[in-house]
Amino acid sequence: MQINENQPFVPVILGGDIGAYSLAREFHEQYDVHSVLVPSVLTGITEHSQILLPRPFEQQDDAAAFAAFVANLGREFGGSNGTKRPLLLLGAADQHIRFIATHADELSEWFTIPYVGNAELDRATEKDAFYQLCRELGVSYPATVVHDCANGSVDGAKIEAELAAEGVPFPAIVKPSDGVAWGQLKFAGKKKVHTVASLAELTELISKATLAGYAGTLIVQDLIPGGDSGMHLATFFSDREGKVRFVSCGRVIVEEHAPGALGNSAAIVAQPNDVAVVEGIRMLEELGWTGFSMFDMKLDPRDGTYKFFELNPRLGRNHFYVTAAGHNVTRFYVEEYLRGGLTGGDELQVATNRHLYNILPLRLLRRYVPRDMKAGVDELISTKQYSHPLYYKKETNPRRWFYILVSTLNHFRKFKRHHPAS
Predict the structure, then answer these.
(1) Residue 80: is its pLDDT beyond 60?
(2) Element (H or E) spanning 137, and its range?
(3) Mean pLDDT throughout 193-221?
(4) Contact present, 37 and 15 (Cβ < 8 Å)
(5) What is residue 211's three-state secondary structure?
(6) Where does 10-117 sit in CATH, by number?
(7) N or C, which end of the chain has less CB nearby within 10 Å?
(8) What is the pLDDT of residue 82?
(9) What pLDDT score was predicted for residue 421?
């Protein structure tokens, strides 16, 4: 397919995962427009689609080459005959948001960019800076020690003393402050997030990461007890003046546990969360944030508080839970950035509809629904209030539906291999 020259605007979406496809679907549902997707490689998610035009670019870690490629997309789709067609430049992953912020000056000739700059990204998304913000505002977060890998040394005794002082026991969670740099590392056993059972395991992990070239900081955190269903998330939209205008919250039912996807939500129930709304607004307005953001948090059964983990500077991979519950996220991009601003004054809109977002076979999902959510999830399923972002009726290519069927059923194999017993 090609983008019709009469299409009023074109979303250009960097990435090719389920979150990137969700955005393309949402633009198509809301505005009947086709998007350009820029994955590193073509996969079943981006192939054989009737709502998007894939333009793969493999060397996305070559910033100069990638910027030149994206600028050429701007020239191609930005209109002809002396008139520019509006183009929205969007990213599906953290590295895309960082890339867009870094190259905003040159790319803004062609694109409208609905993201903050590098300084705001540093303060909000570098995890040690985020926890400093939590401390300043009195927002709960897990007990944390920050280890700097820049000097290359690993002093076990010093690390042990720091963990004891901050009250971080073993087993502990270890994750990078700089997720983009971590994603580029290669070493045996690397995961998105690690759980270490002892000081020896922790120091070994630090040594491996340092030898692989990681020079950022590692976050060593208290492992909050409880399963996947203790996880919660909240998606916010702030206007260009930094005023929070919309929020939608959800409770995770089950996450993926394969090493490369650890922590990605597989099923979410959209539902209100008053604590997330209040605390999220406090942090975002302190930051002067604009555009979309998403918080991850976990309910700590030991004291009944929500512990905030991080701020994502974009829509999450599984943000379709927001749209499926009745609030198409693309409306906020278009109204705020292309059509003069959101209507409705400064009023805050809080989503209240319950809806089930799910990418698993229902039989597999039911194995992992916690007891306190079982009745509610069964009701959502029986009343057809559930959605899969790839199940879009406007897609009619049988090869695409075959891929979706196979990938959905493949979760049985992945969960058998990687997921804890239900």
Answers:
(1) no
(2) helix 127-137
(3) 93
(4) yes
(5) helix
(6) 3.40.50.720
(7) N
(8) 45
(9) 64
Tokens of 418: 């990687």
Residue 372 has phi, psi (to 5 degrees) of -75, -10
DSSP string, 335-346: HHHTSSS-SSTT
Residue recorded with tokens 């209109």 = 79
pLDDT at position 420 over 90: no
Superfamily name and number for 228-418? ATP-grasp fold, B domain (3.30.470.20)
Domain range annotation of the chain: 10-117, 143-222, 228-418
Give dist(CA 194, CA 38) in Å, integer: 30
Structure confidence at residue 22 as a pLDDT band (50, 70, 90): very high
Q: What is the pTM of this model?
A: 0.92
Query: Taking the CA of residue 18 as centre, how many other CA atoms within 13 Å lie in the half-sphere pointing to its CB?
Result: 21
- Among candidates 344, 320, 317, 136, which has minimal Cα distance to 239? 344
Residues constituting the chain: 422
* C-alpha gyration radius of the chain: 21
What is the fold of 143-222?
Dna Ligase; domain 1 (3.30.1490)
Q: Which residues lie closer than 8 Å to 161 by C-beta, 6 or more apart?
A: none
